[in-house]
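Box 3.1. Reading complex inputs
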Amino acid sequence: MKKISLLGSTGSIGVNTLDVVERYPENFQICALSAGSNVELFAQQIRKFKPALAALFDISKIDALKELVADLDVEIVSGQEGAVSAASYSDADLVVSGVVGSAGLLPALAALRAGKNLALANKETLVIAGELVLKEAECTNTKIIPIDSEHSAIFQALNGESPERIKKIILTASGGPFRTFSLKEMENVTVKEALNHPNWSMGAKITIDSSTMMNKGLEYIEAKWLFGVDTNVEVIVHAQSIIHSMIEFVDTSIMAQLGIPDMRVPIAYALTYPDRFVSELPSLDLATMGNLTFEAPDLVRFPCLQLAMDAMEMGQTMPAVLNAANEIAVQAFLDELIPYKDISEIIRMAMHNHRPVELKELQDVLDADLWAREEATKLITVTH
Amino acid sequence: MKKISLLGSTGSIGVNTLDVVERYPENFQICALSAGSNVELFAQQIRKFKPALAALFDISKIDALKELVADLDVEIVSGQEGAVSAASYSDADLVVSGVVGSAGLLPALAALRAGKNLALANKETLVIAGELVLKEAECTNTKIIPIDSEHSAIFQALNGESPERIKKIILTASGGPFRTFSLKEMENVTVKEALNHPNWSMGAKITIDSSTMMNKGLEYIEAKWLFGVDTNVEVIVHAQSIIHSMIEFVDTSIMAQLGIPDMRVPIAYALTYPDRFVSELPSLDLATMGNLTFEAPDLVRFPCLQLAMDAMEMGQTMPAVLNAANEIAVQAFLDELIPYKDISEIIRMAMHNHRPVELKELQDVLDADLWAREEATKLITVTH
């Protein structure tokens, strides 16, 4: 019986993780849960999965939650501190982080510090503080098992092989809903259009990131941290999202992981690793699918991807700035404060105005993150 | 320094193996060579790679060979016995078998009996005597590393995974030169057309087998022996021969091996396994390639594939009969004695007339093989 602490349980990854846990009641048990502010769903999850500890980030809703689960034997904690408690919960064998955004960093670090293996779906943890996170994992001899379908694919392709034999990582990208749009057409994209992802059903923030290909940019940075900063990472557009990513080895042989686009597959893999459990999900049927297509990414139409690669190249606090500016810009677009094409412009300007500093401790990341949020907000206000 | 005994050195696999060996002079050394009857090329290879032992199958040409290498310090042996000597040569760390046809069986068994790991390109070894060969490998605790691109792909996809976690093997097939031909068009196919394989440059026998999909049928049987007779093996037509085969695991996750169609890649993998060496061969460029296509195989137009699956299902000596009848029928087609469509008919009739017996020892295989050759020859004579 593997005991799991699940962070971000009411988000897309969290809900899918609980779906997986429910399918294998003999193998997994939820010992701690954390969520943001969706009190109703969180209360239902607590009732169903009976964690010993439940952490709600949104302190203002803590009383509402307590009332909903008053009849249950569960310890309720709140705020950042509460999330950290759930992340380092002593009983947990594995911590799954499906937290959205940079709020995932502190709990992830806390999990590793507590000696827990970390199944990580939260991109920002590695994007903004890759160096610190890897150092922590090394110190406590803990494993980071990626949940993102692309990084799970790379992790699986590397299984049994020496990382030194990697020639390059080939990160596949769906290209999002605007893959075939012209530059002109992309200028007038609406929130509704951007939220309509062709292959994956995900949260709003990551769906917008998919449409700008910033999602692939963040994954590019994440891949560098997970599989070696000096590893060559190439992005290829593969509209069907069937090949989830590949590794080319030094002998030119490429190992790829394929499957239907369903997050429950990589989530189950992270939970069962190094084993695989029998799944009732449908198999991929390539003969019916007919064909898989590939094309080079267009960095002119998708400047966010280039910005992310540049940020990783510049290093230090630049990826944290890229990430924070993107979060602010995407929210502004969702709030209809800025047009679609300005998302990349806000990030570009924030990066341009930033003086990167060495990333020695957590505070350096938090400072850069805060600076970039303020800078991006200022840029949005000034230019719109 | 890995010492290699190479069987079938003048064939397509042999020549490619020597090409690989030549690229890594620090790592590989040829200690023994065997060939069929191409004395001129064999003499050149002996001169270049300086084996201590050279075995020529064709006894009638032994004097010609001795004359050509008279100035060299090499022991020359001949016949079946000679090939067996090369296969069990004491210095060899690895035996590579690129022998064509059922002539590969005895040397392969000899290699395993001598405790040598066997890099196997010869399909017939497993097709006609899979049970005996696996028993021998188990007794002597030796490894069979497949060289066929499909089985190498499956072997690589399984690397680091438990064979018990295989849901099915997905064997890819190019579909050969007649993939898009109608039944009517296939009736009048010429030898020249059948020898024109779209993706792979190989010997005549295997190229014809590719065109009838008997090659895939033999690989189907081989895959069953290599990866478990009860393992589900599915054939899918993939015209570009880029994905060399796949494994679907119980969790629906599929691992695939991809690359340019060049036999030197799987040969090098078999030689360097479990390591991979840096290769100067070109990398696969999926973006330039654009797309990969898949379709279900048509068992009506390609009856040989169905016959092979049936033979494996029937078991015992039936696969040996399938294989021998196919060898005779293909040669008769190459000699323009029978039309293309009769290849499968000859095999079907030979199988129909055969009473399979249990495969207890080598003689059972040899008897069935001989019976099928005579039967197929008789069928060709009677019906044409």
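In summary: The longest helix of chain B spans residues 362-383.
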